[in-house]
Structures are given as structure tokens and as C-alpha cells.
Amino acid sequence: MIEDELNLSNSLVSVINMNSVNERINLYEGKAIFRFEDREVKSHCKIYIEWLPRPYIKFDAVFQERTRINFNEKVKFKLKDDIEEEVLFTKTDIMAIEVSGIFTRGFSLKDDKRKMNVLEFTLINGFDNFGEWIKSETHRYAGRINFSYMGYRIIIDKVHNYKEIFDELKQIGGYSITHHAQILRNDGLDFSEEDGMKLIEAVEWLMSFANGQRVGVCSLCGYQGTKKVLEKYLRPWVDSNKSTVVTWYPKNYPTNDALEDVFPNLVEKLNDELWGDVLPVVLSWYLDSRSSIIVENKIVSIQIALETLAWTYIVEEKEIMDGNIFNNKLRASDKLRMFLYELEIPRKTPNNIMQGLDKKYEDGTYLFTECRNNIVHPKKKKNDTFLKDINKMVGVLNLGINYLELSMLRIIDYNGIYTNLIAENPKERDRRVPWFYC
């Protein structure tokens, strides 16, 4: 009945799928050539993705002749004359006939160097999102995200077995395909792999930022009509799934379209000459702060990210202050205070973090930078409450995360609902970004 009412679309599928977490994916078995500096060796080869302890595209090969192996030598792998990939050997038998290794970047089964009108890809370790209702062969579920940018449409669907996959990821950790996705143009025209990859990089950035853990892509398939013109597999740079990380993204907020709203702005920023270099670096520091188990390391990562954003915004983009003055005349707390002021982000330390602290720490920028300074230079001060109490340290950490998340959201021009990690009333955590009211 719901299908008739909503006219549900079929959920997307891809050339690869996973029935369970950390399941090996076989990609190819057959003839292949290994090209050394001075010779070529024919082989029978199996290629597969193996996830643990870290994801790699691996191969096992049987050479037709005994071959001298140098484990430091980067060798070319060929299926076809026009496709070569770089590999490293990791293991060989005593006769150097049976060998194993890894692809250093990726592996292509097909690459016609042609434009396409559909580009399919798979996401690893995304999150259990809601979204538009779709249907698989067995059931209906809410799981589609739609991004739009300059005539492009990006469709991202949770896998049909998402319940089992996300339950396994929570229980045992590791890696899995969580979403199938595709890119196409609204006018049906062709586009290049390079154009598609720019959009995919934005998808990876935004999904990772919302998830608090790295989300990556492991396969690309391009089509020109019904003809496949590209089939490529990539080593995904992703984090092993951990327990759910609470971030700015309000996953359970009704009618939440935060990601769809901000995606076009993000693509513009990533294509910008200045921010295109800075935002990926800042995201890396942010994700490091969410993945490390040591609170002190998390705080240092956040401080580096905030200082990077502050310099870029105040000195380079807005030219509010000369770089020499910014670097040499301002304390770290002054830099952060000025930056948050310009972005219209509140700096006051919430009461639930202030309890037991000196009144001078009511300015959150001072509290956060003092905590960071005492971590990096522990001999300077010995009596700070937040260094003796792990709960206070976690409170300072959450304050810094809140500053960083809001700063990143402001940079990419987000004006919607966010989850405030330091809200004193848990019922008021989901709220509009503060600059919306300024």
C-alpha cells in the first residue's frame, strides 16, 4: 500500500555487495602479466579486497617461471596493454613461483578513457541514515539521500541488508559496504571520470564529517548507456567502525535534510583555490580527534584544526589582520576568540563544564587553550583542576569539538539544525546554528 501511495524507487545495487562485515570480495581470477624493470612474467592471478587488519586490494599469483623478487621494487601489473597498476610483493615461496602482494593505489578491470552518463560507486562504513523511502526485492525502508549540484544528481542508498550490517559493525567493528550510490546529470549528458570524482570527494568529506569517522569509496563503475566503460576498485581510506560517534549531525531529527542543504556549498568550497586545500586537512585533524582514545591527543588535534581555520579565515580570506601580527602578537586564546567572534559563535563556557573551575575560565577560548597549553607544556602549571579530573578534561574536549564543528559548518555556509554536544539540557541538544539568529 505504501508503495502505491509513494511510488517508491528501487534501491540501488552495485557490481559488488557484502552479506556480512569484513567479508572478502573477490574481484578477478585469470591471466595477468607482471612487468619488472627488465622482463615480463606471465601468471595466473586472483585479486580480492581483504579488510583486516586494514583494507587492501591484494593478489595471489602463480608465475609461469621462477622469478627473482625484490620486495622493495614497485612492479607494474597488466591485464590489458592499456591498463597498468603498481603493485608491491609481500610474500613468496622459496621457488619464487607463488607470490602475494598488494596494489598500491587501486585496480582497474576496465577503463575505456571515455565519458559516461552514469557513475556508480560504493561507500564503506557510512552511517545508518534515514531519508527518502525506497524498496528492495524484499522490503521497503527509509534510506535514500539526494545531493544536487550544478545539474548533477547524486543518489546514495543504504544497502538492503543495512540492519544486519550496522548491527555487526556495532558488535564486532571492522568494515563493510553500507551504501550504493550513483552520479548522473539531470539533462542526461555525459561527464568525465574526473568530474565525477570531484563530487565523490565532496560526498566522502561530508559523510565523514557527519559520521565522525572516515567514510570512503571502494568501487567505481561508469556506463555510457548500457555499455560499461569503467570498472575500477580503490583502496578505501576509512576508519574501522567503532561505537556510534555523536557529532553535529542530528541523525534522529525529524525531516532532517542537513546534508542535502549544505552539499552545494561544500562543493564550491572544495573547488575554491584557498579552502580546497585547507578543508581536507582540517577534516583529517577533526577525525583524528574523534578516533584517538587519548583525551590529550584529541584536544591537541582540535587546537591545530582551529588554528588552521583561524589563520585561513582571518589572514588569508578576509585579510582582517596581517599575518605577522596574528602569529607574533596574539596569544592562542586571542586568536581563537577573534575567530569565533567573526563567525558569530558563542564562546561562554557552559555551567555544566564550569563547575569547580576558576571564574577566569568563563571564556571558553581561554579554558580550552589553557588546557591545551598545559598538555603540551606540563611543567608550566601544576594546579589546574581540569588536568587532575578526567571528567573535566572530557568537558574541555567537548567544548573544543563544539567550537570546531561550528566553525567548519560556518565555513561551508550551513544554516540548519545541529546537535550541540555541550548543551546543558539534553532535550535542547538539537537546535539551529547560532549565527542564524544574528
UniProtKB/TrEMBL annotation:
<dbReference type="Pfam" id="PF26308">
    <property type="entry name" value="YopA_M"/>
</dbReference>
<feature type="domain" description="YopA central">
    <location>
        <begin position="112"/>
        <end position="243"/>
    </location>
</feature>
<dbReference type="InterPro" id="IPR058684">
    <property type="entry name" value="YopA_M"/>
</dbReference>
<protein>
    <recommendedName>
        <fullName>YopA central domain-containing protein</fullName>
    </recommendedName>
</protein>
